[in-house]
Design brief:
Layout lengths: L8 H17 L74 H11 L9 E3 L19 E4 L3 H4 L1 H9 L15 H14 L3 H12 L3 E2 L2 E2 L4 H13 L14 H7 L1 E3 L2 E3 L4 H10 L2 E7 L17 E8 L2 E9 L4 H14 L6 E5 L4 E11 L4 E13 L1
Antiparallel strand pairs: 1-2, 3-4, 5-6, 7-8, 8-9, 10-11, 11-12
């Protein structure tokens, strides 16, 4: 049985209980009835998952690949894709000539992201220059996120379980417990059931990309091992030989190094840290190429460049996607890391009513085997 296939129901239940307790402390009731809200949209490309066969009496316990009753798997976890594994996801597979921009656009089209002003609400308030130290926002950025998101979407639940597993300060050795290793595995298992990560895997295999000298194959279990290595294996960022950092911690959780915040590019973590009173949103920053930007920043923008303080430490400029799923960002940054096209990948992302020119930056660490940092820089925003 593989390393990623032997999580039992008890391990999954621990993740659920941990997240429910943590969110309850923030006043987020996962049992709250938000049934009056409109149903969440499903991506058109995804075919509904079939019910798994019932387990016969006396049959040996199977590895847990779906969530128990408290979480609704079918609502958010698409079945696997054909190009890399058996699947009922229907979308044209990538090929050797698929460009990075085309692949990122496909990830966006496949993502079951949240709907602004329905699933979540933000208040961008006022813009500012990065060098302006005045606070341009009196209120938090997030005013609402639908609680059921953290109950009905396994990738959100398993993602939240990871956020408190790290020490923010570089130089402090990370102590990884067996429970935290299981949480990493649970997260990777769940995101690999989704369309964006299936497409990411297909793209990497179709492009004949290489990791540690070996070509990426169609094996899902092998790809999960690669993901675990580049995102969760520890390395020393401080230069003190302490194993104090990982790609996941830096990009999604954030770190404090030399008196400033580095990383911290994820909207879910931002929302939860605001709820804890640890984040002070200080205003948004307009895209870099202002002469090319014809669209106004508003409360339904899916890409925002922010300035904020985290536990009193400044982050002068940081760009985040808003409302996207964890699997979208993992897929995007994994493709950027494995593509090996350098630190920059300038793309145009068509979000429907507006477009963004983005520079997808990826910095590698530990002999180019692990993510040092990944994020987007907003160059232009237009209609």
């Amino acid at each position: 049985m593989g390393f990623f296939d032997d999580l039992k129901a008890a391990a999954i239940e621990k993740v659920q209980e941990k997240v429910k307790a943590e969110l309850a402390e923030l006043g987020i009731d996962l049992d709250a009835d938000d049934s009056d809200a409109e149903p969440e949209p499903e991506p058109e490309e995804i075919v509904a998952a079939e019910e798994p066969p019932a387990q016969e009496d006396g049959e040996e316990e199977r590895p847990v690949s779906a969530w128990s009753t408290p979480l609704n798997v079918a609502a958010s976890s698409p079945p696997p894709a054909p190009a890399v594994a058996s699947s009922s996801i229907s979308f044209p597979p990538p090929h050797a000539d698929t460009t990075f921009n085309e692949a990122v656009q496909k990830l966006w089209d496949l993502d079951a992201r949240l709907v602004p002003n329905k699933d979540y609400k933000i208040d961008v308030q006022s813009s500012k220059h990065p060098c302006n130290k005045e606070d341009a926002a009196d209120e938090p950025l997030f005013t609402y996120v639908k609680p059921s998101v953290f109950r009905t979407r396994p990738t959100f639940t398993t993602f939240v379980a990871l956020l408190n597993n790290y020490s923010a300060y570089t130089g402090e050795e990370e102590d990884v417990t067996e429970q935290e290793l299981q949480e990493n595995r649970a997260f990777l298992n769940e995101i690999m059931k989704t369309a964006p990560m299936k497409y990411c895997h297909q793209y990497c295999a179709a492009k004949n990309l290489v990791y540690k000298g070996k070509q990426i194959s169609g094996s899902e279990s092998e790809f999960k091992r690669i993901l675990n290595s580049i995102w969760f294996e520890l390395y020393s960022r401080s230069g003190r030989r302490n194993m104090d950092s990982s790609g996941f911690e830096h990009v999604f959780v954030g770190e404090v190094k030399n008196g400033s915040v580095s990383g911290f590019h994820n909207w879910i973590n931002f929302y939860l840290e605001e709820k804890r009173g640890n984040v002070d949103f200080r205003g948004y920053i307009k895209p870099k190429c202002r002469e090319s930007s014809t669209a106004e920043t508003n409360d339904d923008d899916p890409v925002l460049t922010l300035q904020f303080k985290w536990n009193g430490v400044e982050k002068f400029v940081g760009t985040s996607f808003i409302g996207v799923t964890p699997e979208f960002e993992m897929a995007l940054y994994t493709m950027a890391f494995l593509s090996g096209d350098g630190d920059e990948n300038v793309i145009t992302l068509d979000c429907g009513c507006e477009k963004f020119d983005l520079d997808v930056k990826c910095h590698k660490y530990d002999g180019n085997t692990k993510v040092g940092s990944c994020y987007v820089e907003a160059l232009a925003h237009y209609e």
